[in-house]
Amino acid sequence: MGEAEPNPVQVYNCPFRLPPQLELTTGNVSENFKKWKRQVEVYLAASGGTDKAKEVQVAIILSCGGPHVVEIYDQFQWEDGNDKNDPEKLFEKLQSYCNPRSNEVLESHRFWKLPYQDPFDSFLTDLKTRAASCNFKEPDRMMRDKIVFTVTGKLQELLLREDKLTLERTIQVCRAYEQSNRQVKELREATLKVNKIQKSTDKHSKRKPEKRKEIPKTKQTQFERKDCEFCGYKHEPGKSKCPAWGKRCEQCGGKNHFKAKCKKIHSVSQEQEFDEDQWLKAVRAGGKEVTAVMKVNDCDVRFQLDSAADVNTISQCHVRKEQCKPTKVRLNMWNKTNMKPLGEADLTVINPRTKEKHQLRFIVVPNQFTCLLGLDTVQKLKLITINDERFISNVSSSDLGDLGTAHLHVDSNVRPKVLPCRKIPIALQSLVREELQKLEDRGVLIPITDPTPWVSQMAIARKANGKLRLCIDPQALNTALMREHYRLPVLDDILPQLSKARIFTKLDVKEAFWHVKLDEESSRLTTMITPFGRYRWARLPFGLKVSSEIFQRKLDEVFGNVTGVFSVVDDIIIAGCGANDTEAKQDHDLKLKKVLERCEERHITLNKEKQEIGLKEISFHGHVITKDGVKIDDKKVKAINDMQPPTDVSGVKRLCGMVQYMAKFLSDLSTILEPIRELTRKEKAWHWSEDCEAAFQKIKKMLTETPVLAYFDPGKEVVLQVDSSKDGIGAVLLQGGRPVEYASRSLTASERNWAQIEKEALSVLYGLERFDQYTYGRKVTIHNDHKPLEAILKKPLAMAPKRLQDIMMRWNRYDFDFVYVKGSNLTIADTLSRAYLKSVEGNFSERLRILSLKIAETCDVPDARLLEIREATQVDDEMQTLKETEQNTKPL
């Protein structure tokens, strides 16, 4: 009996190719796993592997994964031994292994560095893949911005022209542009082919060729076609045949060549092996090239200073043959094409002005290209200074910022109010309509037609540049809004952290409150009525009593964890600290860069016009911050410093009353004030002596220094003390009984003829607007000694005289309570109004008069009523006498 034959080995044959192994070392491992898993699932289904036993499926998966996956599989811990042979459990284990290996920051970096490549759909596919790895909250917006930032030339211009550009529209424009370019190129090539003249000969023809006049070589129609150095196409020689002749280059603005054949390198970047490409653009000053002449190999060479280039380039003609060495560097041109240089050379460069010698490395390029000095070199040679403002342009934009969404909470016990529309002067109607349209186009306002429980009125204010500012009048809505009670930072919180600060920067958040979006419910609360319809605010409006706290909280969420950076309302303070100025400068620059990067990341736009960068001292909320401490801003105490001495006993009494009010903050007051107080005694003759003048100057100095002058504290109650005399108005801002800032001015000739109640109302308006940075957006208590003003405030606006109506309408943007105080207790404001500054800053009389006339013109009188008035005037004796007198009397 022979030996038993062994069982035949069953070989698993599959006509399908195995999927690629799982890549665990490069790229986004999590995304790699998702793609690999899908390919393995398709392979199993196609090859019939899903019908096999589970342990066989696991073996197939491990085979597809490769040796690294097998090693990882052997290290897995299994709760149940059977799970080891379950393909679903294996996929879960591998997915959990790969997921933590995704680095969102790195993926985001790769997303923004992704270069453009033709065709567009290929670039779009790569972009979507990158975006999926970044976990963006708004991937469509990020991809739209990336496309717009990456494309160049006319395509970028077309995209920027679009109003309310979406990703879908961006893709549509790019595809259409690419297709049209392709078609134009085909048409040009077809035209050249049709116009091409070829000489044909028939070797088998028996006819004798006709004799022709010999054509000179220069006129022959047979020629060798080469790529034109001006247009890039093949065509007959001659300027008239070149499609680029007479055209202007889109890149440099020069004539007679296309962008593809522009000979100016605007930027180059050094590319090492495995490094990503960097696409850079040159920085120019005022659109002109910045150049410098250097001596190289005893020859003067003109270099373009390119702050966007990573390397230096030099034309071949300036380099000796023995100096040129091979190079592995590849240059990326401005049009995103690559160029292989001729080599590299280490050359000695001499600055003709300073005679300094520098050993520099250059990339040697063909002669038609420009010689460049890159960023590192121009800084090393001190040819240009890189200012920190270069960062600001990246985050300064006309677009609205984005700090997220906020919700407004209202007290349900407060009954909603629907207010009527205010009339506006005819002369302002077109300006108001235009401003409303601008805000609607920017997404700040949204038209609304359906009913809303709250309807506020619109307030109009003029900016310093004469333009209009449209606001919501929040007086009624503020009574229902519930505050977050978020603590606002004060100067005292910041000062202890500035002990080692030497260099300061102050950045201003542009349109600060508009960085915060309102949700649908909150937006409907802010509905306001205008003569052109109702609008709701899509962004957090100015004037709401909750706006400051909401915005401050949002800003703190962005910068709260950055050391040495402080955000107060719409200002961002950066303090550079160090033992000396050099250390402080380095610390300051690092913090500034971090802040600007975070602004760009969180879509915070800055006001370039209000920036103060790298200064030894900055003005902040009425104080001057320096490395030596805090000084009082001269503007705050100008009203006291420029105050003239009293000229009579009454003036002395007012001065003594004001000083006595501050007695608890002044030491040795009675001794200093005694020479002046003596003038109030009956037996003492009036004589303003040198002792009186010295005491007066000493008191003014004491009144304008700490501890008398307080720092403003947003957490404390604000009291505004105002008063008007017959010739001037005065105001002082108080907190805890201590003055924060003084102000006064004289009345104009027309204002001095006003009724006293109008002067007092004007003093209230002057104080509110003069201290706007302290009074706007918060509760203010106003102290004034004019009792009738308290009564007029309780009446409807329509019942007030027209001049008061205008003043009171401008009050509406402020939230204040009016408190009557006896004149004897209103010492500071009373003294300032009588010892006023000669300045008429804040003069509103002319504006009030003109606006009042315009409002009168808008009175709606029916035609029938006008006819009755005209007929009654004709039969009225007194009116006819008045008419005759007016017509016959000569003007004086």
How is this fold's topology laid out?
Layout lengths: L28 H19 L6 H12 L1 H9 L11 H12 L5 H10 L6 H15 L4 H12 L2 H9 L5 H29 L74 E2 L19 E6 L2 E7 L6 E4 L14 E3 L5 E2 L3 E8 L6 E9 L6 E2 L1 H6 L8 H7 L9 E2 L19 H16 L3 E4 L7 E7 L5 E6 L1 H4 L12 H4 L6 E8 L8 E2 L1 H6 L2 E3 L2 E5 L9 H13 L5 E4 L2 E7 L3 H21 L10 E4 L1 E4 L2 E4 L2 E4 L5 H4 L7 H13 L7 H9 L12 H14 L14 E7 L3 E8 L2 E9 L9 H15 L1 H4 L3 E6 L2 H7 L8 H10 L3 E6 L6 H8 L10 H13 L5 H13 L1 H12 L4
Parallel strand pairs: 3-9, 4-8, 10-15, 12-16, 24-27, 27-28
Antiparallel strand pairs: 1-5, 2-3, 2-7, 5-6, 7-8, 11-17, 12-13, 14-19, 14-20, 16-17, 18-19, 21-22, 22-23, 24-25, 25-26
Helix pairs in contact: 1-4, 5-6, 11-17, 19-20, 19-26, 20-21, 22-25, 25-27
Pfam families: RT_RNaseH_2 (PF17919), RVT_1 (PF00078)
InterPro entries: DNA/RNA_pol_sf, Peptidase_aspartic_dom_sf, Retrovirus_Pol_polyprotein, Rev_trsase/Diguanyl_cyclase, RT_dom, RT_RNaseH_2
Category from helices, strands and their pairing? alpha+beta
Main sheet? 6 strands, mixed
Question: Tell me, what is the CATH class of the largest domain?
Answer: Alpha Beta
Arithmetic mean pLDDT: 75
Corresponding CATH architecture of the largest domain: Roll
Total strand count, please? 28
Low-confidence region ranges: 1-12, 191-224, 264-287, 388-394, 844-859
Gyration radius (Cα, Å) is: 40 Å
Major beta sheet, strand line-up: 4-8-7-2-3-9
